[in-house]
Specification:
Jelly Rolls, 4 helices, 8-stranded antiparallel sheet, 208 residues, 17 strands, 5-stranded antiparallel sheet, alpha+beta, globular
């Protein structure tokens, strides 16, 4: 897989996972318990469908740990390019977006003095897509659900970075960037999220 920086704050790697690996994780997600995804407001986790509508899937450790180790290793291998003090992964978390689901514009960092310390420690956000819009053997498809990131670099003519999910694609971006997931118009969008964080910023343990 080749890591490509689309801007100084947004990078991607195609084929981080194979189609077969994506299929296996989707099946594990479908078999796992799920619940409506929450958001953090003033330190509290709450349901807010005006901002976020999707599901969190609680996959077993046999799925979560190997994938987390793999994501961490990838980040470590490119540490110099990311110019970050992030040293462990918070996650991964498994999410599905059914028809009508979305995540309105937000940042993956603390926005309130009462927010959990872990949010202040987020440096780079990682999104791993398990399916896409184009039909692929054994993988479901969906329409809509693009990721839009809003760059802060004033030298860019267009500060919007739009990413159309593809099976196995890994996207990495600075957690301070505003971003959103467009409404899924058809099908189900499967994805995995994680955050490379700085252990020096708080006392919570992480994956190494």
């Amino acid at each position: 897989m080749d890591l490509r920086f689309r801007t100084r704050n947004v990078a991607s790697a195609s084929a981080f996972l194979s189609v077969a690996e994506c299929r296996d994780i989707i099946r594990a997600m479908e078999d796992a318990p799920r619940e409506e995804a929450q958001v953090v407001r003033a330190g509290q986790s709450v349901l807010d469908p005006s901002l976020r509508r999707c599901f969190d899937h609680h996959c077993p450790d046999a799925v979560t740990r190997p994938l987390g180790d793999r994501l961490t290793s990838h980040f470590d291998a490119h540490r110099g390019e990311f110019e970050s003090d992030a040293d462990y992964l918070y996650g991964p978390y498994f999410m599905s977006y059914e028809q009508g689901s979305y995540f309105r514009a937000h940042r993956d960092v603390a926005n309130h003095k009462d927010d959990p310390p872990r949010l202040a420690a987020h440096r780079w956000s990682l999104l791993l897509y398990l399916n896409g819009r184009v039909a692929t053997t054994d993988l479901p498809t969906f329409d809509g659900g693009a990721l839009t990131l809003y760059e802060t670099d004033p030298t860019l003519r267009d500060r919007r970075v739009v990413i159309v999910p593809e099976p196995g694609m890994l996207v990495l971006f600075r957690s301070s960037l505003m971003h959103e997931v467009a409404t899924v118009r058809e099908g189900t969008r499967y994805a995995v999220a994680g955050w490379m964080s700085s252990s020096s910023s708080h006392a919570l343990g992480g994956r190494r």
